[in-house]
């Protein structure tokens, strides 16, 4: 009987200790997570948004016509550069062999080989 | 550097300054007054900023006859060197009209030949800006012999590196042959090209004609087919060179630059499904189909005014350069004639030389009948198309949009002529000849014997149409690989070319073929 009570008390102490440690660990993890959260997500998103102008005038005092003209000029410039295959529009640099597989390179070499009579 | 060294530098700088002025400030002002730019101004517009490195700046002639000893100008009327166009290395020469009218001299030839040799060895495109009154008469046969030196290099470089000529002023006599030997001739501003000028023509034939009416851009774009592109101004002409170059590779071993695609490869334009009119004799503009199938605004038409019954040009498909050949039903029903045959054959050979896949749109009722055509040798000229297609080893895709009749069907990239993939729209009509003539040949006696010959003929024509005027019989016997909805054309072509991009085909070894010239 004495052994039984000793066993039960030891079980209670052991389990209590384990649960106490688990609770402590949980508390620590929660604390770490709270401390590690990025600052911008802590603040309410609504607070970060600047007030939007409602009078229709651009913030930097540029007339809409000017903005439209700049946009059209930029698009026209990009279009012209694309038509001329300007560097920023190309997928590889001229002279690069990236486009060619070994199959193509060997094939082209064969195609361009000059025919010459042999044995002279 | 000081002392003697600084003197040397001062001498060099002074000589360079003289060279930059060409024929002098007065001549430059005269050139500007004519609305023309100087050679160096043109090169500055053509090449990337700061990329030009000149050679032969200080070369002058050694002729002392006819007072030429008093007219020695550094550079001798031509500016040659290397530069970059949109980052691509190119070799350039520009004739300087301010120096003795840009007249072609022995020294000019030496400078051009030097740049031609270097361009060929380096495998880079060669661009020539021509503005010359012709051979330098004072040099006699030396200037004539010099032409030959240039011509032989033009020919050696042909098909190896792209050669583009931009005519920006007079180009007369023997000088016309160098541009004519290059791959593309672009005429800008009030330029003109002719073998014999108005004065000689008047003296020999009594015919009076102006220089522009004899050899202006309109003449060579619309009638002679000598020029491939034209521009109203010099600046536009230079822009055209840049655009044309974007479709061409550096040399025949490389591929043209691929532009990052901006048009979805799977885009299907519903308007294509209703492009072909219900009435089969109703014309439509094949350029509409080209605009809808290829990348947005990528089509650059070559020789748009010459033989308008055929349309050729460069376009992009998923960013890759392709050559487009098409019949134009809106002009002469798209029938092939002598000029169209020459135009198509030459373009196919350019594409083949520079590894540019060819897509052919076919809507052709046949070769144009008539004595003019037969006497003019339409057989020989039409054979050029067949020769060019058969010889070409680049990927070739054909698409029958409507009529593909008789010999024209065979000539226009038919399946048996080494075409890789043959597509047809449901509106395709692939037959030996039109329904009415076919019925007259096949059923003449039946029609004559019938109680109502007209009704019998109508009945037989309807039967013939039902049997042959569709693409399904051709698909049945394997002459068409796939009948597709018109709107599917773009994705089908993109995927087909994706597969064929690594196509390699070799022709039998030979010295050269015998094109029916």
Record the SSE blueprint.
The complex is a heterodimer of chains A (120) and B (517).
Chain A: H1 2-36, H2 39-42, H3 45-48, H4 64-83, H5 102-111
Chain B: H1 4-21, H2 25-33, H3 39-46, E1 53-55, E2 78-85, E3 88-95, H4 106-122, E4 126-130, H5 141-157, E5 163-167, E6 170-172, H6 177-181, E7 184-188, E8 192-194, H7 198-205, H8 211-215, H9 217-224, E9 229-231, H10 234-246, H11 286-293, E10 300-302, E11 310-317, E12 320-327, H12 338-353, E13 358-364, H13 371-375, H14 378-391, E14 396-405, H15 406-411, E15 421-424, E16 429-431, H16 435-442, H17 444-449, H18 453-468, H19 472-476, E17 482-483, H20 489-500
Parallel strand pairs in B: 3-4, 4-5, 5-7, 6-8, 7-9, 12-13, 13-14, 14-15, 14-16, 15-17
Antiparallel strand pairs in B: 1-2, 2-3, 10-11, 11-12
Summarize the structure.
The complex is a heterodimer of chains A (about 120) and B (about 525). Chain A is built from five helices and no strands.
Radius of gyration of chain A: 38 Å
Overall SS class of chain A:
mainly alpha
Kindly estimate the percentage of residues of chain B that lie in beta strands according to DSSP: 15-25%
Calculate the terminal CA-CA distance of chain A, rounded to whole Å.
117 Å
In round numbers, the mean pLDDT of chain B is 91
**How helix-rich are the residues of chain B, as a percent range?**
25-40%
What characterizes the major β-sheet of chain B?
8 strands, mixed
CATH class of the largest domain in chain B: Alpha Beta
The residue ranges of chain A in which pLDDT falls below 50 over 5 or more consecutive positions are: 42-49
The topology string of helices and strands of chain A comes to: HHHHH
Compute the number of strand runs of chain A. 0
Q: What is the straight-line distance between the termini of chain B?
A: 62 Å
**Looking at CATH, which topology of the largest domain in chain B would you report?**
2-enoyl-CoA Hydratase, Chain A, domain 1
